[in-house]
Amino acid sequence: MAKPEKVTAVAEIAERFRESHAAVVTEYRGLSVPALMELRRALGSDVTYSIAKNTLVKRAAAEAGVEGLDDLFVGPTAIAFVRGEAVDAAKAIKKFSKDHKSLVIKGGYLDGATLSVDEVEKFADLESRDVLLAKLAGAMKGNLTKAAGLFNAPASQVARLGAALQDKKAAEGDAAA
Q1: pTM metric for this prediction
Q2: pLDDT tens track for 114-157
């Protein structure tokens, strides 16, 4: 029979899996408590960085319907549950792991798909959502400006042709007089 503390811990972890749309699994062996606190601050308020026993995390993941992560739960494991911007969280973890070699990225989970270490690092190299949206808006504005110029071209050509005809008639009238 399971202990009530373990049942509660599994339920809490399963709820975190359900609430978050992304998770990054790391190994924290060798990190000090102040370093872990620094990492938690770097991750921000939309990310919960939790350390739990692997057996409890495996049960919670299965209970939450998250599959494909069981191989990652070996050794001292901590999980960053991301409720906000997943790119920002991946960037913070990657940057922290460069500064602190003790933190090792094992893999991750994003909207139903399991991510390898390489995929998490590529994901961290992406620009944030706001920057990508700004680039998209700029590209769309540029294309709209080109389209407006293209639609105005025939009208401006007709206006120039009319002005040229008027100038020609005025010149012919001056020559005849």
Answers
A1: 0.68
A2: 888 888 888 777 777 777 778 788 777 777 777 777 777 777 77
- Residues 6 or more apart whose CB falls under 8 angstroms from that of 78 comprise 25, 26, 27, 28, 49, 50, 51, 52
Query: CA-CA distances (angstroms) from residue 86 to 75, 116, 151, 158?
Result: 24, 15, 42, 54
Dig out the tokens for 39 from the structure. Answer: 């990492």
**Rounded CA separation 97/35 (Å):** 11
For residues 78 and 26, is the Cβ–Cβ distance under 8 A? Answer: yes
Residue 172 — φ and ψ, nearest 5°? -70, -35
Q: Write out the H or E segment, with its range, that includes residue 109.
A: strand 104-110
Residues 6+ apart with CB under 8 A from 33: none
170 secondary structure, DSSP code: H
d(CA 140, CA 135): 9
Could you say which DSSP state residue 127 is in? P
